[in-house]
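Summary for the steering committee. The consortium agreed at its last meeting that each partner would contribute one worked example illustrating the joint modelling workflow. Our contribution is presented below. We chose a case with several input lines so that the handling of multiple components could be demonstrated. No manual editing was applied between input and output; the record is shown as generated.
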Amino acid sequence: DAGVIQSPRHEVTEMGQEVTLRCKPISGHDYLFWYRQTMMRGLELLIYFNNNVPIDDSGMPEDRFSAKMPNASFSTLKIQPSEPRDSAVYFCASSTGQYQETQYFGPGTRLLVL
Amino acid sequence: GNSVTQMEGPVTLSEEAFLTINCTYTATGYPSLFWYVQYPGEGLQLLLKATKADDKGSNKGFEATYRKETTSFHLEKGSVQVSDSAVYFCALPRNSGNTPLVFGKGTRLSVIA
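What follows is the complete predicted structure of the assembly.
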């Protein structure tokens, strides 16, 4: 199995630009999670989906952030407009629908907003 | 919701030293407990887990026992190697059911030769 795939691995952009992060979960996994990791705040859950439906987006910092999951094999996290404080590593993770099953993480996208 | 408290780092050890990273939790019921590891420049990966009280999870020489009496899940390894240098996260489900995990702040371990 290829594992969770994220792209791009690194992104450098200027303040005000739109940023789109992409994730392909493990085939057969019903849950998809987006996390953000920073030195100051640690690992934070932004949003998660079950069967392509957003379940909880209370962790999304503000309206500049949006996430979609148009099908079972693809999700995007978009920041528009981006700000320097959005600089972080963004992780996607997926898991099966079984009770309290392990989450499998992608390698992350390291975002730097100048 | 459930919560986890993890010992602060960083931890620096010499090769072959004994490692303990403390983790305590607050939870409703008896959730599964997890240790994840993050190597430099990589995502988190599952190190071990335990699904019920008194279970011992183990992997790569690491062990952790689910202790409901002390609500703890401490990570141990008898003899660390330089390759164990990483950040270690304790985690458990946020609530009952198949919910997102809530993670500790992470403990950075550096092992020197």
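Chain A has a mean pLDDT of 93. The longest strand of chain A covers residues 42-50.
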